[in-house]
Amino acid sequence: MDSSNIIKITVKTLKQKEQFEVAQSSTVQELKEEVAKRFKTPPDLLVLIFAGKILKDQDTLSQHGVHSGVSIHVVIRINFTCLKGFIGRPCLNVVCVCREKTCQEKTPERENMLFLQVRN
Fold it and tell me: 3-class SS at 3?
């Protein structure tokens, strides 16, 4: 990596944050792979959000105006069907990225969940 192209960014979850040094020309997918290692989560489950927009894997960080000093938020994508095992147990700090409006309906087992609706 060319050192003049290196940027320092913060990646935040609901509970923690980590510092990363990456090339500004890196793709979102490349950043996801680094984030996945640090947060011990498969990269295909990660959703990166910057300036209120979900970053697409094939785009570069520079295309979205990502530069040194900024924060990128990360959530873990979970299909509601995967959460059925949680019913009756507390679900703390679970973030669901949903494509259907019905996914956000309030029920007791979803009380502590944060839902982000994705529009295509």
Answer: helix
In DSSP notation, 35-100 reads HHHHHTS-GGGEEEEETTEEPPTTSBTGGGT--TT-EEEEEE---GGGGGGGTTS---SEEEEESS
How would residue 45 be classed by pLDDT, with cut points 50, 70 and 90? Answer: confident
State the fold for domain 3-75: Ubiquitin-like (UB roll) (3.10.20)
Q: Are 117 and 101 in contact (CB under 8 A)?
A: yes
Backbone phi and psi for residue 36, each to the nearest 5 degrees, phi listed first = -60, -40
Q: pLDDT for 69-83, tens place per residue?
A: 999 999 887 654 444
Phi and psi at residue 64, to the nearest 5° = -100, 5
DSSP code of 14?
S
| pTM of full prediction above 0.85 | no
Domain locations along the chain: 3-75, 80-117
Distance (Å, whole) CA 33 – CA 41 = 9
Mean predicted confidence (pLDDT) in 33-51 = 90
